[in-house]
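Deliverable D5.2: sample structural annotation.
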Amino acid sequence: MRKVHVITQKEAVAEEKLTACTAIVIDVFLATSTIAFLLENNFEPIYAVKNSEYAIELSKSQSESHILLGEKKGESLPGFGYPDPGLIRQSDEKQGAIICSTNGTIAIEKASKAKTLFISSLVNGHLIAEQIHLQQDNSSIVLICSGNDDRFSMEDFIGAGQIVEHLMSKGDYDLSDSSKLAREAYKHAEKRSFVDLYECETAHLLKKFNFPDAVEFVLRHHEQVDVVPIFIEGKIINDYQVTVTKKM
């Protein structure tokens, strides 16, 4: 039986312990939701880097068309678009994206040595769970909450619980204590239409920096975005078509 564990913030990740695991990074109200919407809107591949310096350096080396998105501690960065998922618009032609953030992209980098790495949010967590359940291996499943700049994040913990709930609806899994609590948190939040998330720390931060609609936008798209972001060879691509093929 596969084990499922939730790490409540990126700072607690032991990178060397992920090499044989399936990892999932969650940053509900910014990076991972933005990545999901980027893929849905014809931006691929996506490069997630830890800060603006790395983003600019990578941008200079790219010959293909791409956009730059980023923030630092919630503040906009000069020359970067803000990584608010509600600001993403459909690209007429496929182009890449480079994104940096205070929490989510750092968590992705810390999890990059995992055997398999998925990117999840409340908008697509149901499909991530489906893909994990279809895996043909017995690797442990590690759900990584990005957290809020060295602090616990309510929305990421609930996002982890979403995946646990969907996994348990499909089969038997060995849940850690943190996974059990995350699952109950998700079930409680869903029953209440996620009302508590409108008052979470990140929601107030986004309002402070003039992005008051970001939380509403993500919650309105709960399980509505048909992408399965997967990290392969340093970049994030959409694995959803592979999922559909396996289901047929």
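Annotation notes: The two ends are 25 Å apart (CA to CA). Residues 154-170 form the longest helix (17 residues).
The annotation will be released with the project's public dataset once the embargo ends.
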